[in-house]
Amino acid sequence: MGITKKSYNQDNQYILEELKKFVKSEIAPYETTWDKENTFPLDISKQLHRLGWLQSFIPTHLGGLGLSTSTLCQMYKTIAQESRGITTSMAGNMLAFLPIIKHGSKKLQDKIIKRYLNDFFLMSFCFTEPDSGSNVFNIKTNANKVDKGFVLNGKKCFVTNANYSEYLLVVAVNKDITNSKNNFSLFCIPKNSKGVKVASAYNKIGHRSSNTSEIFFEDVFVPLENCIGLDGNGINIAFDSIQRSRIFLSSSAIGLCEKAFDITCNYLENRSIYGKPLLSKEQIRGKLSDLYTKKHAGWLLTLDAAEKWDSGDNSFVPSSMAKLYCGNIAMDFSRECMEFFGAWGLTKEYPIELLYRDAKFYEILEGATFVQQAIISKEIFRKKIKLVG
Ligand SMILES: Cc1cc2nc3c(=O)[nH]c(=O)nc-3n(C[C@H](O)[C@H](O)[C@H](O)COP(=O)(O)OP(=O)(O)OC[C@H]3O[C@@H](n4cnc5c(N)ncnc54)[C@H](O)[C@@H]3O)c2cc1C
């Protein structure tokens, strides 16, 4: 059932069908329990690793499968149909690996990437801070140069996988750099390092099958080979990873829309208050057609961003457009589908309420709506200036 280089090369569709079977049998029946109990199902991550999915983004030159961004989008969409939390955990994990893949030292790549291909562990990407959020340049966590490394102090919040990860990838101000505009570096830290403390998990309203918490750093030593972007370019390296991950969040948002659509059609087919199913009403089918069209448009934007990413187009605009649009339509879908359930939609009887709670996260995670708008408008504005000038 797992994916190997051979099975991936031979039949892309086959491996996705196998994933669907896994999701239906191992994830779908348990998501409401994980949601109710605010539990991160670590064992599912282990199984996804055993099957080869969790590490499938590792490129071939480092020994991985190097699945295309479009195939990874399919993977995220498939899993998100049944659990948004698991895909959030996967994205948070991957975010921490990407800078090491692209910019890590050979020693760090051997220690982390090569090992991860066979051994299961999770990573956390530590960017957000209580007083920075969208304004990442206000990050206060800092690293001071010492003999053979750096010493880190600070605090991060909303860190995915925080209570379960083995390594942390931390964005911090590098005090060794005098240029105050370009002075961020990334630091890869084993979570069991002296001086690292993790709080207990937040009690979130959605994505409750993912784990999110705060992490504190007090005089944490990081050896030189675990540092990335020591020229001060760390923030751009982090942005690059986030931008790729936004494509996967968009895919997950579409997975949510697909699930909402399916359960709503099913409900309307069985709900009969005029002597025939509600689905027979033209107006209802019209509204569902609007939603279906939006979902398709969102998926096309996502695949467009995926193809551009793989073709080496390094513009941030396609993935921000996908994230902006898919985040919005996930909200539209869950709100409008919930309406179709009438009062039943406001109970825990049907999973539409869970989708409604989960949907909001796609407008906030990895850059709130404002951030995506800022990225897109910067590009449009730049082009207009060129046209006028
Ligand atoms: C489940 C979950 C998992 C997460 N995982 C991670 C993780 O693994 N690693 C990590 O580093 N972070 C993570 N985050 C943090 C997430 O990326 C941030 O919450 C997000 O970027 C928004 O930052 P903020 O919450 O500080 O909002 P703020 O930046 O405080 O923004 C609040 C509101 O103000 C708006 N706004 C901000 N600036 C402006 C402006 N200049 N003009 C107009 N409007 C503005 C925003 O659009 C937003 O609506 C996670 C969050 C959640 C909920």
Task: Please describe the topology of this protein.
Layout: H1 5-10, H2 12-27, H3 31-37, H4 42-50, H5 69-80, H6 84-103, H7 106-118, E1 123-126, E2 142-146, E3 149-160, E4 167-174, E5 184-190, E6 196-198, E7 212-223, E8 227-228, H8 234-270, H9 282-310, H10 317-340, H11 352-359, H12 361-364, H13 369-388
Parallel strand pairs: 1-4, 2-4
Antiparallel strand pairs: 2-3, 3-7, 4-5, 5-8, 6-7
The structure holds flavin-adenine dinucleotide (FAD).
What general outline do the C-alpha atoms trace? globular
Helix % is 40-55%
Order of helices and strands: HHHHHHHEEEEEEEEHHHHHH
Q: Hetero groups bound?
A: flavin-adenine dinucleotide
CATH class of the largest domain: Mainly Alpha
Stretches with pLDDT under 50, minimum 5 residues: none
Number of domains: 3
Q: Which architecture of the largest domain per CATH?
A: Up-down Bundle
CATH superfamily of the largest domain, by name, is Butyryl-CoA Dehydrogenase, subunit A, domain 3
The largest sheet is: 8 strands, mixed
Cα separation of the termini? 58 Å
Reported by name, the CATH topology of the largest domain is: Butyryl-CoA Dehydrogenase, subunit A, domain 3
Strand composition percent: 5-15%
Structure summary, number of beta strands:
8
**Oligomeric form:** single chain
Q: How does the helix and strand content classify structurally?
A: alpha+beta
Global Rg: 22 Å
If you average the pLDDT, what whole number results? 95
Question: Could you walk me through the main structural features you see in this protein, from its secondary elements to its overall organization?
Answer:
With 389 residues, the chain is of the alpha+beta class. Helix 8 (234-270) packs parallel to helix 10 (317-340), helix 9 runs antiparallel to helix 10 (317-340) and helix 10 (317-340) packs antiparallel against helix 11 (352-359). It has helices spanning 5-10, 12-27, 31-37, 42-50, 69-80, 84-103, 106-118, 234-270, 282-310, 317-340, 352-359, 361-364, 369-388, and strands at residues 123-126, 142-146, 149-160, 167-174, 184-190, 196-198, 212-223, 227-228. It has 3 domains: 5-121, Acyl-CoA dehydrogenase/oxidase, N-terminal domain (Butyryl-Coa Dehydrogenase, subunit A, domain 1, Orthogonal Bundle), CATH 1.10.540.10; 124-232, Beta Barrel (Butyryl-CoA Dehydrogenase, subunit A, domain 2); 236-388, Butyryl-CoA Dehydrogenase, subunit A, domain 3 (Up-down Bundle). A hairpin with a 2-residue loop joins strand 2 and strand 3. The chain has 13 helices and 8 strands. The chain is 53% helix and 14% strand. Strands 1, 2, 3, 4, 5, 6, 7 and 8 form an 8-stranded mixed sheet that branches. Residues 88, 92, 125-128, 133-134, 158-160, 204, 207, 212, 361, 364-370 line the site of flavin-adenine dinucleotide.
